[in-house]
Amino acid sequence: MDKNQITGIILMVVLYVGYIWYSTPSEEERNAAIAEQERLVEEARKDSLLLVEEEAFQATLRQEEASAPSTADTEAMDPKLEQRFGSLAMAAVGQDQTFELGNENLTVQFTSRGGTPYVALLPKYNRYGTEEPVTLWEPDQSEVSVLFDFNEVNRPLSLNEFHFEVERQTKDALVLVASNDAGKSIRWQHTLIGNSLDSDLSFEGFGYDLGDEFALAWTAQGVTNEKGLEWERQHSSIYYKEDDRGRNYLSDGRADEFEAETALEWVAFKQNFFSAIVSTPEGFLAGSKLTTTVPEEDSTVTMQYAALLPFEATEMGGQSGATLNFYFGPNEQNTLVATGWTEVDRIIDYGWWIFGWVNRNAILPLYQFLSQHFVSAGIIILIITLIIKLALTPITWKNFMSSAKMRVLRPEIDALTEKHGDDAMGKQQATMALYRQTGVNPLAGCLPGLLQMPILYAMFRFFPANIDMRGQSFLWADDLGAFDSILDLPFSIPFYGAHVSGFTILMAASTFFYMRMTMANQPPQPQQPGMPNMKVIQQMFPFMMLFFFNRFASGLSLYYLAANIISMGQMLAIKAFLIDEDKIRAKIEENKAKPKKKSGFQERLEQMQKEQAAKTKDIKEAKKGRKK
């Protein structure tokens, strides 16, 4: 071991010892850490005692036993009640109950603890694989309440701290009231119409004891209603509409938060095909806070939602009040539009810009028309596919005609390539001259292809978002609104899943053969250096679709499968009956014989090309001269 190695080892030991000495806490620091640990333990103990005490206090308020509390119990509660609730103390005492309003579309249960919605069920829709109606949130893990300031106490109060009793109930209306002996009362008047619940809240007899700030505090834990939890989570979020702005939303399927800088017209807790929405005529105030979290470890929960929505109460006849309008129901276009709320139907993700317009104004009306005559959603998908492909037949024919012209010209283009060799500019000028002489436009097939894109992407959005697909079976698929499975795997394949989708396999196979037929009808293209090999892409793309579409709605895979089959049929029919390459070649020769007059733009373009070619030639010659 030489001197340098020994020196290095000594330095390393010194550095290590120095680090240990530096990082070792002093006696004072150790004592402070011990004291902090003891403080945290003591706080935890106190918090535990307070929690037990609070639970006992709340149990006493709720009178869990049917019998009323004894006089001694009431007297013992009075100091705490008055401290926490002021003159509203006795309104906090009562036995927990639930009350119900319902119709064929919606059943809402209300809790006496707050008088607010506790359960929302949709009788027309069942949770996947069960006979249970769809529920919009987990009741025991969710809460709807109103926070308000009461000047007799130094903290905000929540309506869920007070006991409400039935004052009046009819088939579609429920009036709940919480009151004290001093003439103060809080009243809810709930009215149920279809999927809408109109809730009028009023504070009577409070005078100046009532503060000016109110807020709706709503937390909800979404439960799984669909076949695939991951897909359901990816299409769950909070949507909202700001004044003078378009509909917006928090990140789908991910934890996110938002604080509004302007007023909100409405807020929606969206869960794939269903939503719970709230609005108020005056709008929620700026400063509203929205939060979503995703409990990854819990497979029974889709998303946890939270909204704190401040609003203003109106003064009328010595009482303060506000109206909250709720919607509990399906994300169905016409039903949402019927609420009258601006852009609320855009909760349904039919796509942005022209794609959403195509779905809402063309595809959806067509689907609704066909659904009046056909029961099977699968048959409707096939008919829609056929109608779309027939409507696009002129565009398809235009593409084939352009490809056929280019294929006829291919030998002459190859000859020009061989003639000009490495002279790219010369080859380009000669090729453009050939196109002009023959009357062939190499870009003629591009525009028809672009015109098809809105339809293709619109379909990609339409079928997974359309609630009419939900629960509809076709062949082996038991739900066209979710993935189909012909084989459930005992393990999960990364990026693929734990099932095998039959429609996805057929769609991928049809895509492979369709791409082969398409490439066969295109003129052969020389492989450019640095450019991807189209044959490899052709073979890889269908394989990638197996992974991409395996978890998608089977209705979408069925559409693409049918579209590929029809496209291949169109391709064969056009090639057999509408495309005659001999006639195309004769037409090209005829165009060659016609004198062509150059436009001013063409002359300027050719002049620019010649000047560029001359500059390129001079640069090359200069480089050769320097090398010599």
Task: Give the topology, please.
Blueprint: H1 3-23, H2 27-62, H3 71-85, E1 98-102, E2 107-111, E3 117-126, E4 133-135, E5 143-150, E6 156-158, E7 165-169, E8 173-179, E9 185-193, E10 196-204, E11 210-223, H4 229-234, E12 236-242, E13 247-249, E14 256-259, E15 264-271, E16 274-284, E17 289-293, E18 301-311, E19 314-316, E20 319-330, H5 333-337, H6 353-371, H7 377-391, H8 393-420, H9 424-438, H10 446-465, E21 487-493, E22 497-500, H11 502-521, H12 534-549, H13 554-577, H14 581-593, H15 600-627
Antiparallel strand pairs: 1-2, 2-3, 3-4, 5-6, 5-11, 7-8, 8-9, 9-10, 10-20, 11-18, 12-13, 12-15, 14-17, 15-16, 16-20, 17-18, 19-20, 21-22
Helix pairs in contact: 6-7, 6-10, 7-13, 8-9, 8-10, 8-13, 8-14, 10-13, 11-12, 11-13
